[in-house]
Amino acid sequence: MFNLLIIGAGAAGSVVAKKAALNRDVFTKIHLASRTLKKCEIVKKEAASEIEISQVDADNVKEVVALINKFKPDLVVNMALPYQDLPIMDACLETCVSYLDTANYEPKDLAKFEYSWQWAYQERFTKAGILAILGCGFDPGVTNIFCAYAQKHYFDEIHYIDIIDCNAGDHGKSFATNFNPEINIREVTQDGKYYKDGKWVDIKALSISKDIDYPEVGIKKSYLIFHEELESIAKNFKHLKQARFWMTFSDNYIKHLDVLQSVGMTRIDPVIHKGVEIIPIEFLKTLLPEPSSLAENYSGKTSIGCIIQGIKDGKEKKILIYNVCDHAMCNKEVKAQAVSYTTGVPALVGAKMFATKAWAGKGVKNVEEFDPDPFMKELATQGLPWHVKELPVVEQKEPLAA
Ligand code: NDP
Q1: Residue 215 predicted with pLDDT over 90
Q2: How far, in Å, is the centroid of ligand 1 from the Cα of 79?
């Protein structure tokens, strides 16, 4: 008997709910709640088995507490936005229920994402005897677990990690984001940084790029950006010398972003428009396509992995662990595009790890702190097969191509 509560019926949350509905041997009852009930109704209709739904404003702790008390879940999976992480964690504390999410907290009025706010719940979650599983999407999530798997099976010491993330898909729109537009644009327009020799090296947004050869996709221009898993990876891998995150953006995406930014449409502070206060990025989000709406005509693949270098038995070693996911396959299976699918499936697998007690404990943990083996096995079974490739060892060189 295991009751699963999912909050957020957007592009990725819908995947979690639909996949849970295909895993009834583990999830006895499933409840999907979101700000807009209509979106839950659509998921309910499309799910393979019965799920319950309701409306909730997850910014409101009291509402989430009432929902938890009514449904009595064993785990709350937060698939709403990073803004809701803390109110949902507060509600979980009040009701003594464990928690899982896919993105770390960021305040609405500050475009800065870091784990400090959620790591600060460590003592309270431990005292309450409940577990918070942080960052269980693909990146963060699977990428952290790829590193943990590499540490367990391939290395004595990991020295270098390059996370490489390519979406080589085509959605046919002139400009759209693959996950929530507000969160995506806040992430990409921030200045970047990477971890080197115990320090963070700051760089200007999108100022460093290089060509990377992605499995099944080929060579793509990739930009060095800050991504949240670097923070927990830098903390959890003791011998690490350097960790970087690379993501592909098309020239067309960058061109649109440049224009939007230069005219002020990505601003997160309020401006007065015809006597009314609006936040430009929130208005922009209203205009842009919803990530879930991209699924139908999306072609191509995502190719995401970790290039990991270190030492095994005294010798230098380098491997790539990766997954390739096809947009059309995801649409066929659960009416989603690959970015939502690669986020939702790992969240579901994380929930399954907790439900089956393969992952247990109390306090606040990032996913690389758990045993990677059962997760990796289940990930492949649930639709995201992964591969390990040995790479030739070459010396790590600086400077990076600008
Ligand atoms: P969507 O915008 O499609 O979905 C977000 C959903 O959350 C919407 O349905 C929205 O409701 C709901 N929501 C927002 N605010 C509230 C609230 N106060 N109360 C209840 N529900 C609310 O985004 P995605 O599905 O693309 O992304 C979801 C999350 O996944 C984000 O946090 C994102 O950062 C994360 N993510 C993680 C990735 C990873 O690999 N780790 C990759 C991609 C995304 P409404 O429909 O009313 O707007």
Answers
A1: yes
A2: 5
Q: Is 363 left (phi over 0), alpha (psi -120 to 50) or beta?
A: left
Note whether 319 and 267 are same-domain residues: yes
Task: Kindly report the backbone phi and psi dihedral angles of residue 77, in degrees, each rounded to the nearest multiple of 5, phi listed first.
Answer: -105, 115
The mean pLDDT value for 43-56 works out to 98
Does residue 181 sit in the same domain as residue 307? yes
Whether 147 and 264 map to the same domain: the answer is yes
Q: What is the pLDDT of residue 86?
A: 98
HSE-up (13 A, CA, CB side) for residue 111? 17
Q: Give the Cα separation of 166 and 164 in Å (integer).
A: 7
Output the pTM of the full model.
Answer: 0.96
**Pocket of ligand 1 contains residue 143 by CB under 6 Å:** no
46: its two tokens: 């499309």
Nearest CA to ligand 1 atom 26: 179
How far does residue 150's CA lie from ligand 1's centre (Å)? 30
Cβ of 141 below 6 Å from ligand 1: yes
Nearest CA to ligand 1 atom 39: 137
At 3, the pLDDT band (50, 70, 90 cuts) reads: very high
13 close to ligand 1 (CB < 6 Angstrom):
yes
The string of pLDDT tens digits covering residues 266-297 is: 999 999 999 999 999 999 999 999 999 999 99
Alpha carbon of 394 to ligand 1 centroid (Å): 40
Q: How far is the CA of 11 from the centre of ligand 1 (A)?
A: 7
Domain count, the chain: 2
Q: Which residues pair with 98 in a beta bridge?
A: 75
Q: How far apart are CA 275 and CA 149, in angstroms?
A: 55
Q: Is 144 in the pocket of ligand 1 (CB under 6 A)?
A: no
Residue 400 pLDDT more than 50? no
Q: What is the CATH number of the domain that holds 110?
A: 3.40.50.720
- Tell whether 347 is covered by a domain: no
Note the pLDDT of residue 112.
84
What is the C-alpha to C-alpha distance for residues 286 and 279, in angstroms, rounded to an integer? 11
Do 222 and 318 fall into the same domain?
Answer: yes
Give the domain extent around 314: 142-338+385-390
Q: How close is the Cα of 87 to the center of ligand 1, in Å?
A: 15
Residues 217 and 321 in one domain: yes
The gap from C-alpha 80 to its chain's centroid, in whole angstroms, comes to 12
